[in-house]
């Protein structure tokens, strides 16, 4: 099968933090499809390529356009921030190709990338070293009730929690409610790492606590890492003990 659609996770947004495989695939592709913000992050790799940019909420259209390019024989990739699977476009691509009955005509090649939980954790110290979970506060695809249920179970189970999509203009108060649910099972002195624009221009890193969290400093480009009951702050870094006896 010659027709292949690439789903590429570009990592946190800086070229040096992209996997070599992702970099080489982008270089080799003729067509790049993606959300405008993600295209901007790899703009220097877009020379002499057809670039299709679409805004937030146009994921299905992006996928359809990419499929059309592949069917016309062009080597095409859909770019995803972080990883191409986690909150990315890979699942949608498989679903759409199945629904269009194109599985015998288009092969999907998923290229993973460094997701925000891991890139942000590396900037904060070592908050994620064992079991953890990711929770997106975006209720665009998942109901708010289900998000809160998942969040409460994760907090009760004492996971370190990486919070994606914590805030937007349409969801100004979701994070406050989410932290109230977490605080049922965590001390208000629990460390919280706040990273905006990880490994990109205007990067900002803050380590604080549930009690001292500044909600006004958080936006859609921010990821939060909420520690578990063992996480502590030392020398301006978040550390979750792995369990070794020292």
Q: How does this model look, in words?
A:
With 246 residues, this protein is α/β, with parallel strands linked by helices. It has two domains: 4-114, 3-Layer(aba) Sandwich (Cobalt-precorrin-4 Transmethylase, domain 1), CATH 3.40.1010.10; 117-239, Methyltransferase, Cobalt-precorrin-4 Transmethylase, Domain 2 (2-Layer Sandwich). It has seven helices and 13 strands. The protein has helices at 20-28, 36-41, 59-71, 90-99, 116-124, 144-156, 174-182, and strands at 4-9, 31-35, 50-54, 76-80, 107-111, 125-126, 132-136, 160-164, 191-196, 204-209, 222-226, 232-234, 237-239. The protein has a five-stranded parallel β-sheet, with helices on both faces. A five-stranded mixed β-sheet has the order 7-8-11-9-10, sandwiched between helices. The chain has a three-stranded mixed β-sheet with strand order 6-13-12. Strand 7 (132-136), helix 6 (144-156) and strand 8 form a beta-alpha-beta unit. Helix 3 (59-71) packs across helix 4 (90-99). It is elongated. The model has no long low-confidence stretch (mean pLDDT 95).
SSE layout and pairings?
Elements: E1 4-9, H1 20-28, E2 31-35, H2 36-41, E3 50-54, H3 59-71, E4 76-80, H4 90-99, E5 107-111, H5 116-124, E6 125-126, E7 132-136, H6 144-156, E8 160-164, H7 174-182, E9 191-196, E10 204-209, E11 222-226, E12 232-234, E13 237-239
Parallel strand pairs: 1-4, 1-5, 2-3, 2-4, 6-13, 7-8
Antiparallel strand pairs: 8-11, 9-10, 9-11, 12-13
Helix pairs in contact: 3-4
């Amino acid at each position: 099968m010659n027709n292949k659609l690439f789903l590429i996770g570009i990592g946190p947004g800086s070229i040096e933090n992209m996997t070599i495989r992702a970099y080489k695939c982008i270089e080799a592709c003729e067509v790049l499809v993606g959300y405008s913000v993600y295209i901007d992050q790899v703009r220097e790799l877009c020379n002499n390529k057809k670039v299709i940019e679409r805004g937030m909420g146009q994921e299905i259209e992006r996928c359809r356009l990419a499929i059309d390019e592949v069917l016309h024989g062009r080597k095409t990739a859909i770019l995803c921030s972080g990883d191409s699977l986690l909150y990315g476009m890979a699942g949608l691509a498989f679903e759409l190709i199945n629904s269009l009955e194109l599985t015998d005509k288009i092969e999907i090649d998923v290229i993973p990338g460094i997701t925000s939980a891991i890139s942000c954790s590396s900037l904060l110290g070592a908050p994620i070293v064992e079991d953890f979970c990711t929770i997106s506060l975006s209720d665009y695809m998942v109901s708010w009730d289900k998000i809160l249920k998942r969040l409460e179970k994760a907090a009760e189970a004492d996971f370190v929690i990486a919070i994606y999509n914590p805030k937007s203009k349409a969801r100004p108060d979701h994070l406050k409610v989410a932290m109230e649910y977490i605080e049922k099972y965590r001390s208000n002195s629990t460390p919280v790492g706040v990273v905006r624009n990880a490994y990109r221009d205007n990067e900002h890193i803050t380590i604080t606590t549930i009690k001292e969290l500044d909600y006004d400093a958080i936006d859609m480009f921010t990821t939060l890492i909420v520690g578990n009951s063992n996480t502590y702050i030392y020398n301006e870094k978040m550390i979750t003990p792995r369990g070794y006896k020292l």
